[in-house]
Amino acid sequence: MFYTFSPNGVVKLLQEHYGLTVTAKELEGYDEANFYVKDEQGNAWICKIAGESQRPSFLDAQVRILEHLAKGDTKGRFQQVVRNQKDEPVTRLATPEELYYLRLYTWLEGQPVVTVKGTRDLYTSWGSFLGKMDKALETFSHPAMHRDIRWDLAHALDARDQLPCIKDPEKKRLAAYFLLQFETEVLPLWHRLRKAYIHNDANDYNILVQHDLVSGLIDFGDMVYTQLVNNVAIACTYAMLEAGDPMEAAVAVVKGYHEAYPLTPEETDLLYYLIAARLCISVTTSAEKAAAGSDNEFHFITENGAWKLLFHLITINPLAMQQAFRTACGFQPVINNEVDHTPLLAERKAHIGRNLSISYKEPLKIIRGALQYLYDDKGRTFIDCVNNPCHVGHCHPVVVKALQQQAARLNTNTRYLHDHLVDYANQLIATLPPSLEVCYFTNSGSEANDLAIRMSRHYTQQKDVIVLDHAYHGTSTVAMELSPYKFDGKGGFGKPEHTHKALNPDMYRGPYRADDPQAGEKYAADVSGIIAGLKEQGRGVAAYICETLLGVGGQIPLPPGYLKAVYAAMKAAGGVCIADEVQVGFGRVGDAFWGFELQEVTPDIVVLGKPIGNGHPLAAVVTTRAIADAFNNGMEYFNTFGGNPVSMATGLAVLNVIREEGLQEHARVTGNYFMEGLRRLKEKHAIIGDVRGHGFFIGAELVRDRNTLEPAVPEIDAVVEAMKQRGFLLSTDGPLHNVLKIKPPMVFNKANTDALLAHLDEVLSSL
Hints:
This protein is α+β, with helices and mostly antiparallel strands. The protein folds into 4 domains: about 5-110, Phosphorylase Kinase, domain 1; about 110-330, Aminoglycoside phosphotransferase (APH), C-terminal lobe (Aminoglycoside 3'-phosphotransferase, Chain: A, domain 2, Alpha-Beta Complex); about 435-640, Type I PLP-dependent aspartate aminotransferase-like (Major domain) (Aspartate Aminotransferase, domain 2); about 665-765, Aspartate Aminotransferase, domain 1, CATH 3.90.1150. Helices cover about 40% and strands about 15% of the residues. The protein is built from 23 helices and 28 strands.
């Protein structure tokens, strides 16, 4: 505003146009200049001055709505319009620079709710006040309120345009996730919701309180014709911001509103997503203002609280909030805790192979995923600590949108040209050593391992393969033949003739341990011995395949120098070195993008799966030109779904997210923090025998005795079940089933880590 509208200027204007003798004090404002004015008799008003950006028709709407609310049950609870000496509600002020509009309203007594401690009665009063107002507005209308504004939840998805202004990757991801949920859960039902003329900004600065009850509402500058429930959602949002129990505060608002002006079940069911959308509009707007260099504190007044609430909101199962709102309104519940899963389990057993396992004594029915969180059908939230296929987080918005958009355009096989195929291949090989330059795409790690062995046998004209004891490489026939974890286990068929087991290089339980600096070379010597034995029989070796950190073998990092010695022996024997990165790759280990890089080696073939598509069925084999040329022997290689456009778009999105969100470094920093915490627990709890890993590939081995290394089974099963009851999903691994397996989505954060460690400490103390 110009100097004309200083407090002294406003005093003169009010004398000239309203005949008032007052003093004036400037207040903060968002789009308008605001002044508190008072006369000698103690009468007070608020003077508002808007520029040409405020349409006269909309200023008229503000006048009309206040005049409408001055009648009936709402009389005295809203500001009254003071007309000027010409009996006009709005005074036009022409200056050489611009045309301005001055309005004068009576001052409402009361404290902004932000300045008082929230109570359930206050929140209920807040909702009741709005319900009565909206009921009074049933008969109101004004054409100027049919407008497009950023703060209308109907336009929440416009906030995506401001997402690039958010510099913190975790915050940007969170806001994008909730905007995706708005698109998915709200928009399909949007046209069915009641519409009304609403205030649209019943926030904690605009709601006034006296004696712990709402006494008034100010600032109609954001009012709009939109979905009625938005008014409730906005009130819930600001009630939750500083509440000790945010959900309790929102429920109280909804209860009070519903008693005054009944909601529908459909409206209450969407409130979770509408609250999140309002927060997203707020934080993206603040980010945009910050990027533009704004120094107006009003632009950032709720930013910190909004982010805090968004981080809290994602920990709440939407079904739990839906149930709470329905209960408050007396609607049919959506959760029945008395219903068990026996019928579903029976159907599963009847029509699904019974050797398809299921986790936990009391199985979970998971209905939604949200980055590092999972929600079940009983309203519970779980932190996912083990689901590594969803590498960059469940329902990551960037990956979901890439998959959706490509699926809506085209999905077909690779016999047609498509940019995504070569684009993804180029981006993938850019992460690998130069010698790995030819890609083959499949649908699973099992299929990829099968293909890798087939290629190695073509290249070497040999059949024998060396694997590690206890290893697992997949479910295809060939992969099972490479997996001692399966063929030596219950129901297994025993070691095939052409498969040879090398020592599991376990530096905690094996013959060569962590205190032996030559452990890597000694374990590698076992592989050399197998090669020599085959040579004595007149047989060569096709391949050596090894996970670059051992998964089912016990979450074991390989000893220093191990792969370097093994690969040298294999190359000398003419064999192919295959790195199984299915569980390890794509930055999970933190210190490197690929697990084999930790060993300072370059394999001949790399097998990729699980995290490559963030849960989408995608896998790959990447190899050298020489091996690819040998495989090109006249027999066509074709995979109906491998390399299809949707899979390639998904893979590209995953690579972009890892890079743009800095997830490899996040895994390194947070993973180290996690392992430090586990080592502190090891000092306290003798049952933890070993803590090991890299980045977000972590194992904690539980033993009954640190000298005998007797495995702590069934104690570890009790730990996993107890942690599940506390909201943490863990699993076990290792040949003796006594290793806690921790491989969370890469978005798992330090707050999740602290919570898990605190609960694990309590669980271990209770054993």
